[in-house]
Amino acid sequence: MRGLSYIEVEVTGPGRDLHSGTYGGAVANPITVLAKMIAGCHDEKNHVTIPGFYDDVLEVSKEERELMNKAPFDENEYKEETGSKELWGENGYTTVERTGIRPTLEINGIWGGYEGEGAKTVLPSKATAKISARLVSNQTSDKMSQLLIEYFTSIAPSSVTIKAFRHHGGEPYLTPIDSIGYKAATRAIETTFGKTPVPVRGGGSIPICTILEKELGVKIIFMGFGLDSDNLHSPNEKYGIINFNKGIETIPYFHKYFAELIQSPK
């Protein structure tokens, strides 16, 4: 699972909303300033341009990348599922890799000025954005949050005042695929689904995993039975009864095979 750094950036121009006719062209518009700052965070190859953003990223071996890409993937189905006209992402990586082994920078929300019905010709006083970075192995949320805060603070022009602060964060988590737990999970899924699972890396975050490992000294095994099409964090989020029952069926087998492998690891 990827980790997370989540910050908020607030840009202030004039001390109050101004008339865009009387003052437009003479006073910096904080929405324009913020939009330019955000637009510069990716280059033409969709690579994050923030200095130091990739410094701690561990490169994944060619062999593991090939293994990940054995998972069934249909680009047209993916576009239909997401409602997207085209897929987008960092050049040189597949969609499976972009959402698993690469860090990302996303704008989660942006607002400022007049947002009501009709028109109101204001030059707004403030503009705000919520920005998050998904982190991969070896990156830390504290370091990334500080990097983002310092970056946006440093690139702001002198015509505005900027305030950037952290909301929350969490660490990435990686389970070794040669562990007893992983092998037991593989056998359990083979038993109930009749297929050998492919090790993939999830794009989301479960920050408590690193805490559990630190406190308990054990590795966490992910056996998600939900689907990407279950509308996570969206309206009409769902979970299929079939998947629910498959989970009930699979987990006892995991315990069975785990106990057997503990006694005889081979």
Can you give a write-up of this model?
By secondary structure, the protein is α+β, with helices and mostly antiparallel strands. The protein folds into two domains: 3-57 and 103-170, 2-Layer Sandwich (Alpha-Beta Plaits); 180-263, DNA polymerase, domain 1. 35% of the residues lie in helices and 16% in strands. It contains nine helices and six strands, in the order ββαααααβββαβααα. The strands form two sheets. A four-stranded antiparallel beta sheet has the order 3-5-1-6, covered by helices on one side. A two-stranded antiparallel sheet has the order 2-4. Helix 7 crosses helix 9. The protein is elongated. 21% of the residues are buried. The model has no long low-confidence stretch (mean pLDDT 93).
Helix count equals 9
Give the distance, in angstroms, between the N- and C-terminal Cα atoms: 27 Å
Overall pLDDT confidence: 93
CATH class of the largest domain: Alpha Beta
Taken together, the total number of domains comes to 2
Tell me roughly what share of residues is in helical segments: 25-40%
What is the spatial order of strands in the main beta sheet? Answer: 3-5-1-6
Enumerate the spans where pLDDT stays under 50 for 5 or more consecutive residues: none
Share in β-strands:
15-25%
Summarize the biggest pleated sheet. Answer: 4 strands, antiparallel
SS class: alpha+beta
In the CATH scheme, what's the topology name of the largest domain?
A: Alpha-Beta Plaits
